[in-house]
Amino acid sequence: MGKDVLGTVYETLLCSPGMNEAVKIDAKISRKTILLLSRLIENGAGQDGNVLGLLGLIPAEDREELKNFGDECLKKAGLKELSEKIKTLKN
């Protein structure tokens, strides 16, 4: 499926009725999974506006909400500081 077709499909899905409604999720996942999920979100959202893959097809405000979700998960798991230290190793 071409990127333009995939983009149209996702735009249609994201505009569907009820997609902006908040949903409460009660999930128990490991800290390892939270750390990995957060890194996947950050890598997909890119640095300096360089957005990769599927995240490039969604609006900037939705990408920001996804980043905030990853940060919130890190905070709740007590991994925010560890994540920041790991980022410094990359530089």
Automatic annotation (TrEMBL):
Provenance organism: Mucilaginibacter corticis
Protein's name in the database: Uncharacterized protein
